[in-house]
Protein 1
Amino acid sequence: MIVVLKKDATIEQRGDLIEWIKSLGLDVHLSEGKFQTVLGLIGDTESVDEELIKGLSIVQSVTRVTEKFKKANRKFHNDDSVFEVNSNAGGVTAGVKIGDGNFLVIAGPCSVESEEQICAIAESVKASGAQMLRGGAFKPRTSPYDFQGLHADGIELLVKAKKLTGLPIVTELMDLSHLKYFDEVDVIQVGARNMQNMELLKALGKTGKPILLKRGLANTVSELLLSAEYIMAGGNEQVILCERGIRTFETATRNTLDIAAIPVLKELSHLPVIVDPSHACGIVRYVKPLSLAAAACGTDGLIVEVHNNPERALCDGPQSLTPEQFADLVKSVNRVREAVNL
Amino acid sequence: MIVVLKKDATIEQRGDLIEWIKSLGLDVHLSEGKFQTVLGLIGDTESVDEELIKGLSIVQSVTRVTEKFKKANRKFHNDDSVFEVNSNAGGVTAGVKIGDGNFLVIAGPCSVESEEQICAIAESVKASGAQMLRGGAFKPRTSPYDFQGLHADGIELLVKAKKLTGLPIVTELMDLSHLKYFDEVDVIQVGARNMQNMELLKALGKTGKPILLKRGLANTVSELLLSAEYIMAGGNEQVILCERGIRTFETATRNTLDIAAIPVLKELSHLPVIVDPSHACGIVRYVKPLSLAAAACGTDGLIVEVHNNPERALCDGPQSLTPEQFADLVKSVNRVREAVNL
Amino acid sequence: MIVVLKKDATIEQRGDLIEWIKSLGLDVHLSEGKFQTVLGLIGDTESVDEELIKGLSIVQSVTRVTEKFKKANRKFHNDDSVFEVNSNAGGVTAGVKIGDGNFLVIAGPCSVESEEQICAIAESVKASGAQMLRGGAFKPRTSPYDFQGLHADGIELLVKAKKLTGLPIVTELMDLSHLKYFDEVDVIQVGARNMQNMELLKALGKTGKPILLKRGLANTVSELLLSAEYIMAGGNEQVILCERGIRTFETATRNTLDIAAIPVLKELSHLPVIVDPSHACGIVRYVKPLSLAAAACGTDGLIVEVHNNPERALCDGPQSLTPEQFADLVKSVNRVREAVNL
Amino acid sequence: MIVVLKKDATIEQRGDLIEWIKSLGLDVHLSEGKFQTVLGLIGDTESVDEELIKGLSIVQSVTRVTEKFKKANRKFHNDDSVFEVNSNAGGVTAGVKIGDGNFLVIAGPCSVESEEQICAIAESVKASGAQMLRGGAFKPRTSPYDFQGLHADGIELLVKAKKLTGLPIVTELMDLSHLKYFDEVDVIQVGARNMQNMELLKALGKTGKPILLKRGLANTVSELLLSAEYIMAGGNEQVILCERGIRTFETATRNTLDIAAIPVLKELSHLPVIVDPSHACGIVRYVKPLSLAAAACGTDGLIVEVHNNPERALCDGPQSLTPEQFADLVKSVNRVREAVNL
C-alpha cells in the first residue's frame, strides 16, 4: 500500500502515523520528495482500512497495490475453476460442468407462472441446447404493486420441470428466511440488488451449492470479486460471476452491458464468468446481438429469458425470446464460439 | 400512460394490444399521426408493467404519466408528514419530532466500539445539540476481511448510552434475522446497499418503528420513493428519506452528493428528507461545507459521524468529526437555517 | 409531443399555454384526468424546444414522440447508407465502400511520428487487410504538457504513406483553422471531445468529405445522431458513426464500450456504425476480444491502433497492437463475421 | 509516480523498463514484494505519459503522486488568486474583483434577443446586485434545428447594455473564428461542451482577458484544472472555474450539481470557483435552493439566468428567474454568506 503525505504534514504527525502503521504489524518504507513524502507499507496489508488512512488530514492519497480478494484471485489460483452441477432428479447422473471451456447455457422464463408453462419451456429449451433451467419464484420488483412471484409454490413447479427434463434449476434467493425452500434448487442466484447483501453472502458460503452472483447496477468488477470472496471465505468456492449491465446515463437500453468486464474478470479471477443479455438491454430484439458479442468476447456462458406463450406473445415480457428465437440464438452462439476458438 | 407505436405496426397488432390493455380494465384513447400512433391509457395504470409494454416489438416508447408511488406521494397527501420518536429510556418523555420544520440532528460514531466510547460520544453530541444517537452495530463492509461490527453486543451498548442520555438511538438493520435485537432501537436504518432489499422493506412495514431509508448508490429519487412505498404499503408510514450521495465517474469524493435531491424529494413527497454528508464525501474536511449546503437547500435534518478518541485522533475514521468540530458545525448549521428562513 | 400538466394548473394557465402552442402552428389534443391533464401536440414539433416547456411551473413532464433528427433517421430513409471513399493517390481507382455490408477496417498509429514509421505501418496494415490508414497529426491531449502531434507536417507524412500504399487516410480535425491542411485527407475524423463542437460540425457539412464522427464520452446515442444531423443539414450526408466507449463509474478499463449502441444506432439510423476498441478500453490485451464482440454484434467496421516499433515494443502505447497482432485480429474478425452471417 | 509490476514480469522486461525510465531523466527506486514489484519514479514526472506505462503488459497499475497541473495548483501558489475586471464602458472606472472573498454575481438571459430585452434585464439585475451581465450571442444547441443565437449582432447588443449600465459583460465563445467579435467582451466564457477544445483553450491563453471556464458534463475536477492549465500555460492566469452540474443516471434534474466540487477545487487550486445553478438543474424552481447551497458551501460567485418578459412569462425559459425572483435570491444568498462567515 502506497500512502502519499501532503507537504504540510509535520515530522510529528508523520512519526505518529508511521508508529501506528508499525503497530499493525507492517513495515514502512519512507521516501521524501520536494513536494510530498511517500510511505510504502510492506507486509500483509489486506486488513488495513485504506478509507481510514485516506481520511487523515495529512494524507493526500492512498493506493492499494495488492487486491483485497484472495480466494477469488487468479494470482493465487492460476487455473480456471471448473465445477460440476449434479441435478439429483430422475436418475440423471451426468453433471453439467461450468468453467474452463465448458460453455453453459441457462434459459427459462422471467417468472414461473404455472406447471404447464414451466414444463413446456423446460422441454423446449432443453431441445435447443440449454443445460440448465432458470425461472423466478421470488421476484425483486421495484414497486410493491407489481407481481411478486409464486414464492415456494414457484420452486415446487421448477422442481417438477427438473424431474421431467433432468435439467438442473437456478432461481433467485431474496432473503435468508427463504433458504428452507431451496433444498432441491441446484444453483442459487444472488440478484444484482443483493450483490452487497453481506449477510446473505455469508450464509451462502455455508450452503455447498454453486452460487450465481450477479453484478450490482453500480458496482465495479473489484466489488463483484469482493462479494464472491464473502461467499468463498465461508468455504463455498463454487461461485459463477454474472455480468448483467451497469447503470449509466444512457437510456436507450435499460442498462449498459459492460462487455469488457468479461476479459477483465477472467484476468483477475479464476472463476467462470457468464453474461445475462436479457436484463442488460431489456429489449428482446437486442438479446441475440448481445449474446453473440458475449460469446465472441470469451464468456463462459449465457443466461437467457425465454417464454412460451404463443397465444399471448404480443404481450409477453420485453426481454423474452420465443423458443424458436432461442434455438436460433444457440446455433449462432455456437458458430461464433467455433470461429473464435479456431 | 402514453404508448407510442412504431409506424410499421400492423392494424392487427395494434388491435391485439388495445384489446389486451382493455382486458386490464383500462380505456384507450388512440391518436394517429403520420409516422406513429399514440395510445393514451386511461384508468388505474399503477399496476401496469411499463417494461413489459416497452418490450413489445411494435412499441417505440412508453411514458408513465402518474407516478407509481401513492402513499409517499405529495399529490395525495399535501401536508408535510411529521412524526415523533419517543425514546422509552430513563423517564425521558419528551419525544423528538421529525419533519415539517422540525430539524433533526443525528450524530454518533461509525461503529460502536465500547461502552466507554459510545457513552462519551452520546454525552458530547447531546451537549452540542444532537437529538438522536447513531452508531453501527452490524456493519456492511465491502470486504469480508474488514471489521464487521459488535452485532447484538453493539446494540446493548447503544441502549446503555440511550439510558444515560435520553437520546433515542438509530442503527442499521442488515438482515431480517437480526430484527429480534432491535426491540429497544428507536429508529431502524436501512443502508444504501439494502435500499432495494424488498423482503427487508416489507418486514419493516410491519414494525411500527420509524425507518431511516438511505438512497442506494445507483438509485434514482423515484426508486427511493418506491422503496419507501414498500414500507408504507405494509402499514408503517413513518419513513425518513436520506440522501447520502450517488456513484458517478468523479473520484475526488467517495460519492457525489446530489444536493438537488432535497427539493426534488420534498416536491414529490410529503416525507421528511435528511442528508448524510459524512458518507456522501468520505473526507472529514468536507463534512461541514456539505452540511451547510444541505441546510441552505432545505434538508429536514442531518446524520453526521462523530468520534471521540483524542489519543488516537490521527488514525480515526476519515468521515468523523471530533466533538468540537461537531459542536461548531451545529452552530453554523443553525445560523444558516435562520438566514434561509428569515 | 406529449405535455402532462400538474393538477394545480389553473384553467387560465392552461389556456395560455394552449394558445401559445397553437401560435407555433401546432394543434393540441387535450385529455383530462383526475390528477393531471395531458396535451398532445400535433404537427411539426421538430423545432419546439421541449426544455422550454418542461421548465414551465404548470408542466409535470414532456415527452417527445418524434425524434428531432431527420436526415439521419431510418424512418425517413429505410435503406442502409453506403458511400465510397476514393483515394486520389497513385493511380488507385478502386474506392473503399462503407456501409450496407461493406466491412471497413481502419488501422494505424496513435500519432504520426516520422515518414519511416507511418509508411512501414501503412504497408503492414494494408498487407493484413486494412482498407484505410489512420494516424494522429493534431492530438487532443488532456494536459498541455503532453505531446501535441506533428500538426501539418503529420498530415504530409500521412499523404506520403497514402501515395505509397493507395490507402485512403483518416485523421482528426481539432479546429476549423486547420481545415486548410486537410485537402488530401480522405476522411475527416471528429474526436469525442468535439462531438458537440457545433461550429466544427456545421463547417464539415460543407466539405463534401466523409466524416468519421466519434461519440462523446458523456453523450447519448440520440445526441450522437443530432450531431450527425448538424453535418447532414449542411449538405454532407456521408457520416460514419463511431462508438468508442462512454464514461462510467467503472475504472478497470479507460471507458466502458457500449456494445449495445451498435444495434441501437443501426435501428434508429441508416448511417454506418463502426467501433474503436482501442480507445474504448485503453489496454492492448482487451482490443482483440472487444473487436470480436463488435463484429459479432453487427458493427460495420473497426478503427484500430497499430504500432510498428519492435525495438521499443515494451514502451509503446497501451492501446496499440503490433502488426502481427493486428493481422491475427483481422483473421479472427473475419471468421466471426462469417459465423454470424451464415 | 508509482508503477506496480505484475509478478510474472521477467527480470529482462523489468530491466528494459527501468532503463527506458532512466532515459527520460528520472531516477527509479525499486522495492520487491512477494507478489509484485513496485517502482518509484523520482524526478520531474510531469511529462511522463502514465497511460503509456499503464498499457505495458508487465504493468499492473500506475499512480501519479504529483498532479499534472502546476500553474493552477495551490501547492505552488498558496494564496487565493484575485483579479479585477474593468469594464471600459461609459467612464466606469471601478473594477469588479473576483476571488479571495469577493463574491461575484453574474446574471442575464439565456439568449440575447433584442436591445430592449437585454438593456431592461441589465438595468434590473444591476439594481438587484448583479456585478456582471451575461447573455448568449452564439448558442451551442444540441439540435441543428434549434435557435442558434444572434451571433455578432448579439454581442453588439450586449455592448449597448454595458454602456448603459456599466456592467462588464460575459458571453460564450464557441469557435476561434468568432474571436474577432469579442473585443469589447470583458469575460470570455468557455462552455461545458468546449472544456476540452484544446485549440480554443490555447488561443484564450493569449487573450489577456479573464476566462470563465465551465466544467464539462463528463469531466472530473482534475480534468477541469488541466483545461485551466492549458489557458494559464499560454500566459493568461485569469481563469474562473465554474461548476455547472455533471451527467449521471439521475433524470429528475437535467444534470447533477456536484456541490462538493466547490471545496475540492478550492483545496486543489487557488483559482476562484463559481456555480451555475440554472444549467445544473434546468428547472427554475430549484435555482434558489441550489444557489443558497452553493453560497453555504463556499462558492466565490454565481452565474444565474434571468429573463424579463412579463407578457410571455408563461412560456419563458425553464431555467430563468424573473427579476423579482432574482432580487429575492440575491438577498437570501447574502444572508447565507453572512451566516457562514460569522
Note: The longest helix of chain C spans residues 323-341.
Protein 2
Amino acid sequence: MKNKIPTRIYLTEDEMPKHWYNLRADMKDKPDPILHPGTLQPVTAEDLAPVFCKGVIDQELDETTRLVPIPSDIQDFYRAYRPSPLIRAYYLEKMLDTPAEIYYKFEGTNTSGSHKLNSAGPQAYYAKEAGLTSLTTETGAGQWGTAMAMACGFYDLKLTVYMVKISSEQKPYRKALMEAYGANLIPSPSNTTEAGKKILEVDPNTGGSLGCAISEAIERAVKTDKCRYVLGSVLNHVLLHQSIIGLETKTALDKYGIKPDIIIGCAGGGSNLGGLISPFMGEKLAGKSNTRFIAVEPASCPSFTRGRFAYDFGDTGKTTPLIKMQTLGSGFIPSANHAGGLRYHGMNSTLSKLYKDGLLEARSEVQTEVFDAALKFMKGEGILPAPESSHAIKAAIDEALECKKTGEKKVILFGLSGTGFFDMTAYTSYNNKTMSDQIPSDADLERGFASIPNIPQNI
Amino acid sequence: MKNKIPTRIYLTEDEMPKHWYNLRADMKDKPDPILHPGTLQPVTAEDLAPVFCKGVIDQELDETTRLVPIPSDIQDFYRAYRPSPLIRAYYLEKMLDTPAEIYYKFEGTNTSGSHKLNSAGPQAYYAKEAGLTSLTTETGAGQWGTAMAMACGFYDLKLTVYMVKISSEQKPYRKALMEAYGANLIPSPSNTTEAGKKILEVDPNTGGSLGCAISEAIERAVKTDKCRYVLGSVLNHVLLHQSIIGLETKTALDKYGIKPDIIIGCAGGGSNLGGLISPFMGEKLAGKSNTRFIAVEPASCPSFTRGRFAYDFGDTGKTTPLIKMQTLGSGFIPSANHAGGLRYHGMNSTLSKLYKDGLLEARSEVQTEVFDAALKFMKGEGILPAPESSHAIKAAIDEALECKKTGEKKVILFGLSGTGFFDMTAYTSYNNKTMSDQIPSDADLERGFASIPNIPQNI
C-alpha cells in the first residue's frame, strides 16, 4: 500500500497559522449579544472586567475582526506541541470497507491529552500580559484543568482549580497530574467560597457539578487581588483560539486539494467543534462550498437536539451574564453515569445560532454505541480515543457506512479531540458490560427548562 | 523567537526508513554467541524454534546483513503512528540557560505510550506470516504488554500476557487498556503453569517478578499449539526493530546538518538505547564521528555500572539460553519501590559488548533525582515523561549544565522513550515526598552474582 496521500499530514512551522479566524465576522446574522443579567442590556468590557482579563474580553466582544493576529509568544507556545497531525484513516476505511475517504485531526498528542491546551495557552498569556499573578477555573472530566495547569506552569502563574468532587475522587491521577504542574486543586463544593458553603449546607454529601464549580471559581477570582477567572469552552474567545484546529486542517487539506463533504465534531460547550469547523463554515457562508456540518452530542445531555434556543445563565448559581444559546436550562443535571465531559447544559452562542439558522446539523448518540465505535476505531487506527471524541467517531463511521450503501465516495473529516488515558474506568465498565445509556425523560427536561430565566427572548 | 531549526522535525513518508540497521554487521568485535544451556554450544535456529517464530530467529542469529528490508506490511504498520517527532528542546535550554543544543526523539505519541510498539508490530507480523494463531508474553510496568496487545489486535492474533502480580494490582488501568485491545491478562505467578505453581508453593503471597513471568509465558507458548513467545527487549532482533528510532533521528538531523556530540538513552534491557544509538554507533565504528554514547540506568538495578560481564540466564527460572552480557545475576531482585521499568537484571549483548570495549559509557541515577529532572522537563517542554525516560533527561540536563560551566556549545541528543500517563502513582509519591532511593548494598549484589552459572566464560 503506497498512498498518494500520506497517512499523517504535518504542516511545517512556516505553514502554521499566524492568525486566528473569527467566524462571527463573516456571519451576516450574528449571534445575539451577551446580556447583563441585572439590566438585560448587552454587557460591556467594564461589566466583564472583574471576572476576565482584558485580552480575552476584547476578543469576546469583537464581532468584526476576521483575522486576529496570534501574538508571537503564543505562536512559540503552540510550536511546543503543534502542529497536530491530520490523519487519513486508511485502516478504519479498510475495516469498514467503505468507498468514503475519512480524515481526522488528532488533538491528543500533547500531555493535557486534548485540544483544550489551544485556549489555555493564550488565556494564561493574556493574564501574564495584564500583570495578574493568579487564575481560577473549574474542571469536570479534567482536560481543561490539566491544560490550564500546564499553561500556568509555563507562564509561571498560580492556578486554583475547583474540580467537581465526584471527578476528583474518581480520577485521582488527573488530580496528581495537575498538581505535578503546580496547580492547587480544591474539590467542589468546598468551604472556601460562599457559593460552595451554601450548597454544602443543603447537601453535605453532594458530589458537586460543573455549574457549582464555575460559581466557586468565579467567586474566588473576583475576591482575590490580581486574579481572574478562565473558562475552557462555551465563550466565543475560546472558539477563536480553537480556530487553530480548523486552520491547520484546512491548510493541510488544501495542500492535497481535498475538499471535505462532511465535517463532524463532538459537542459539549462547543470549543472543539467550533474550532474545527470555523474556516470551513466561513467558506460555506461565502457560498464557496456545500459542506455539511454535524455536531454530535450525548443523548444524556442533548442541548442541540432536545434543548431550547433561549437566553440562559452559564452556571447553576445564576451568577454569569445571559447567553442566547441552545440550552437545557442551567438547572438541568446530566446523569453522573455518563463517561467523560460533554455534560454542559448549554452551547456556544455562535454554534447555537448556526444550528438555529440551519447551517449546522446535530444528532445525539447513546454511550454504549459510542464506545462500540471507540473500540472499532482503536483496533483499526491504534489510538485510544477520549469518550468525548468517540461521539464524533460514531457519526463518522455511520456516515462512512452510509457511503458503503450508496456507493458514494464522500470525504469525511472529523475531530479527534483527545485521548482516553484517564478514562480507563469508563472503558472497564464498557468491557464488563456494566455501562448503561442515560437518556433523560421529557419530565427531566421540563424540570431543566423551568430554570431558564423568564425574560423577553428578543432583545 | 523565530528558529532556523524547527521545534519539531517530522520526516515525510518518503523519507521514512525502508530498512532496519543491524549494528552487529559493522562491529569487528561481535558480541559472543548465545549458548544452549545444556550443551554450552551456540544455539541454532532449531534450538529456538519451539519458543520463537522463524522470522525473528533468523534476525536474532544474523550478524552479517547490515540493512534488513522492512516488509511493506510493517512499513504500513509504522505509518499508522510514525514518524515520531524529533524535538529541539528550546524551552529546556532556556530554562537551564545553557549554550548546549538539546534534541530529543519522542516515542510516546502512540497509544502504547512508548517505543515498544516498534518491535511489537514486527513480532506480531512475523507470527501471522508463520501461520500462528496466538502469542504469549510477560509485562512488568505494562508498556510492552500494551504494545503487544495493540499489535495483536491489529494482526488479529490472540495474546496472553503474564503481568507481574504486584504491577497488575498497582496498575489496573494498564490492565484495562490491554483488555480493551483484546488481550488475556494473567497475574503472575499463576496456577496456569508449572513454573508459576512451583513459585506459589514456596510463597503463596509473592508479588511476582519479571523473571518469573517470563518463565510462565515461555512454558505456555511451548505447550500451546500454533503459539510462540515474544520478548520486548534484551534480544538483538528487538534492537534491530528499534533501529527505526535512530534511523529516523539521523535522517532528521542530517537534513539540518546537525551532528550530535553526545547521545543519551535510558537502559533497562537496552531496546530503546540500542535502537537510538545504532546508526550513530555505526558511524563511530567506521571512524566517521567522535560522538559519546551514554547509557543511564537506575541506581537500584545497575547492571552496567556495578554488574559483571558474564554468560547468564535471561529469566529467574533459568530456562532460557545463556547470553553473554552485563548482569547482576538472574537471582538479583531489584527493589519493588522503584518506579517504572528498567528493573531487568541483565542487558542486551551488543550493548554489553560495546560497554566492555569502551565504546559506550554508563552511569546510574537515583530515582528522586530522576524525578527532579522529570518535573523540570515537564514544566519546560510540556510533556509528562515516563520514569524510565526520565533517566535520560537527568543525564541530558547534567551534560547541558556542564556545558554552561565550560561554555561549550555541544549538541546533546537523548531518547524520550515514553510518557508517564500510567505512572501517576509514582509522581504522587514524588509530590508527597514519600519516594525514596533504593541502592542495593554490596551484599545484595553478591547474592545476585551467586546466581550466575559457573561455566567457562570464554567459549
Note: Chain B touches chain A through 46 residues (CB under 8 Å).
